[in-house]
Automatic annotation (TrEMBL):
Protein name, UniProt field: NADPH-dependent FMN reductase-like domain-containing protein
Domain NADPH-dependent FMN reductase-like: 41-119
InterPro entries: Flavoprotein-like_sf, FMN_Rdtase-like_dom
Superkingdom of the organism of origin: Bacteria
GO MF terms held by the record: oxidoreductase activity
Species the sequence originates in: Rhodococcus wratislaviensis NBRC 100605
Length: 152
């Protein structure tokens, strides 16, 4: 059984809605062999990261950067996990009121340093979620989970 760790900071109703759609996709009943573990960014630990076979990261865009909670998570796990997670797959979603570019760039720098492998297009969302945005969140979760299932 493969483990997919979803680390997120979802303080607003819209970011919570993104998380729920991502989790629904990752837990699609047609995807076998993947256990999905969702942990808020301030609660995720080094052992959680080391035990995971793949990752989904979700954050709000705050003042042109990822959320402080997700940054704290990365600060906590970066060096203890540096060589141990190289090559593991990841996906990312970012929600902002009007801009996500800085938040995306900040996460990309860190996951590049960890040598994680991007397996899905980064999902950048602004404003409220419509049916299309929810579907894209679902597809992101399913894509990363399927990637893990195929490696099982």
């Amino acid at each position: 059984m493969k483990s997919l760790l979803v680390v997120h900071h979802t303080p607003s109703p819209v970011t919570r809605e993104c998380l729920e759609a991502v989790l629904k996709g990752a837990r699609d009943p047609d995807i076998d062999g993947v256990e999905v573990k969702s942990i808020p960014a301030l609660g995720a630990t080094v052992p959680d990261v080391l035990a995971a076979d793949g990752f989904l990261f979700g954050t709000s865009a705050n003042f042109g950067y990822m959320s402080g909670a997700l940054k704290h998570f990365f600060d906590t796990v970066y060096y203890p996990c540096l060589d141990a997670v190289a090559g593991r797959p990841y996906g990312l979603w970012v929600h902002g009121n009007n801009d996500t570019a800085g938040a995306v760039k900040s996460v990309q720098k860190i996951v590049t340093g960890l040598a994680l492998t991007q397996v899905a297009e980064i999902l950048e969302l602004t404003g409220s979620l419509d049916a299309s945005a929810r579907e894209r969140c679902y597809e992101l979760g399913a894509t990363v989970a399927v990637t893990l299932a195929e490696d099982a």
